[in-house]
Amino acid sequence: MTNSERINRLYHRELHLETIDLEPEDFQQATLLSDRFNNESQQWQAYVKILGLLALKKWLSDRHLRLDNQIESLPPDQIISSEPICPLQVGGFKVCLLTDENIVNEGIEIPEKMIYSPEFAAHLYILLQVLIESEAALLIGFIRHDQFKNLSLQKNEIGNYQLSLNQLNYDSSQLILNLKYLSPAAIKLPENTLPESKPWEKLTNWLEGILTEGWQPLEEVLANRKPIIQMAFRLDRTTEQLSPKVVKNFLKQFQITQQPRDKIQADLSQPELSDTEVNKALVQILQTTEDEETRWQIAELLWEIDPSHPAAGVRRAMDLGMQLARVPVALMIAILPKPNQRFAVLSRVYPMQEQRFLPANLKLIGLDENGESLFEIRARQRDDYIQFKFTADPGDRFSLQVTLNSATVTKQFVI
User: Fold this and answer.
1) Residues 179 and 214 grouped into a single domain
2) By residue range, what is the domain housing residue 56?
3) Contact 386/332 with Cβ under 8 angstroms?
4) pLDDT tens digits, one per residue of 339-372
5) Rounded to whole angstroms, how far apart are CA atoms 405 and 388?
6) Could you report the per-residue pLDDT of 120-174, keeping only the tens digit for each?
7) CA distance linking residue 98 with residue 96, whole number of Å
8) Residue 302 confidence (pLDDT)
9) Hey, which end of the chain has fewer CB within 10 Å, N or C?
10) Residue 251 binned pLDDT confidence (cut-offs 50, 70, 90)
11) Parallel/antiparallel/unpaired status of strands 407-414 and 200-202
């Protein structure tokens, strides 16, 4: 037992706090579920949180109450975040679990959104300390949401509220009475005046013109940067725009290497191609070629000359600067229908504003819905973007993480 654990145990014993014993199988499960993350600090954060969740689940079960959430199905970004896990479900109650291995007597921090956001606010906030060396957890106390308004909480420099331990209710029997006999409606939570939030962004909705707030056309997000097109053609030097002549040269290159050649119906011997003929030729290649790289090249050509063309799929971007420690980068996602009812997905991270290159060691990480790693791309010196392309089926779920040092932004998607 560490010295800090001894001090805390003595302090908590005076308060007659309940101890929840952790069994070997709890540590095995926490190890198994945390090992799916690549980063060591994320693994440890997940390990401690999962032990806290297992302790809460056991404490509730011993009192004929049930944690309705499946621990292994919780969103990965909640498990690896330093923030509380909100909201969990216990019967009709929303519960916020604050857990850590090192809780000092001065108090704890609660993000503002955990109190005032309809998405995260909970009826009851439960503080639990994980004691790894002691193979136990301590149920320290709880506070009801309606009691927050009676407290004069102070924000710290990062916008979190400071809650001292003496502002908690240490009587666990009161927590049981609340969960068993109080109506959840008796504790009024913030009301959502906006449409219900959807944590998983449905990309196929984009193809129907349905987008959620924050996702914008790439040109708008990167308004201060010139377009970067890494393909088998270059921009017209005089206009710095794609011209029919440039596209015609690309089509000729494609025609030379493809069989049968008669698949492109536009007459490439003409001195100039009309916009209609250019679009027709590009779409025909897009719908017939089986080469994935060529399909993305055609899609990017169409985005430049006809961004709203229905055959080109959809690309949108989000400014992550405010979420990623103010590092000016943008995440772009593109979805492109395939002939076999599957979808091609392109993920890309761009530098923004005056930044010409991405910060070295910035990472783009893909996770499946269980938090298993799908890919990890790391920016090198002088990378003007990093990207990854893959194919997905309807209903597939995945997360994208953009990580730099200790800052991480996670976005969840479903096809």
Assistant:
1) no
2) 3-186
3) no
4) 777 888 999 999 987 788 898 889 999 988 777 8
5) 20
6) 899 999 999 999 999 999 999 999 999 987 787 777 777 788 888 888 899 999 9
7) 6
8) 75
9) N
10) low
11) parallel
pLDDT over threshold 50, residue 236? no
| Greater model confidence, 403 or 244 | 403
- In whole angstroms, what is the distance from residue 335 CA to residue 82 CA? 32
Enumerate the H helices of 106-258 as residue ranges. Answer: 113-116, 145-148, 172-181, 203-206, 218-221, 244-257
Instruction: Let me know whether 204 and 170 are in one domain.
Output: no
- Residues comprising the chain, all counted: 415
List helix spans (H) across 306-411: none
Q: How many CB atoms lie within 10 A of CB 283?
A: 17
Separation between Cα atoms, residue 348 and residue 400, nearest integer Å: 10
Alpha-carbon distance of 317 to 389, in angstroms, equals 16
Strand-pairing partners, residue 363, are: 378, 403
How far is residue 201's CA from residue 226's CA, in Å, rounded to a whole number?
28
Q: Which residue has the tokens 């216990």?
A: 90
Q: Domain check: are 207 and 182 in the same one?
A: no
Cα separation, 97 vs 81, in Å, equals: 13
- Give the per-residue pLDDT at 404: 85
Helices of type H across 222-345: 244-257, 275-288, 292-305
Backbone angles phi, psi at 86, to 5 degrees: -140, 145
Considering the domain architecture, whether residues 251 and 391 belong to the same structural domain is answered as yes
Q: Two tokens at 283? A: 């779409």
d(CA 262, CA 275): 20
Q: Cα angle at 103 between 99 and 109, to 5 degrees?
A: 70
Q: Are residues 113 and 85 in the same domain?
A: yes
Task: Match 């090249």 to its residue by tokens.
Answer: 297
CA-to-CA distance for 333 and 411, rounded, in angstroms?
A: 11
Residue type, 333: I
